Amino acid sequence: MVAGVLTALLANPSAVAVASAGLPLPDDPISQDDTERSENETNPQGAGPSGPGGYWTGLKVRPRRPRQDSNVRVLVHCPHTSTDAIVTAKPFNPPGSFRHSTPLGVGIRKGRGFDTKYVAYDALLGWRLVRLKCLRITMLEHPRRRIVRLVSRDRTYVLIRPFRKERF
Question: Which domains, from first to last, does the chain contain?
Answer without folding.
Answer: 1-32 (no CATH), 39-167 (2.60.40.10)
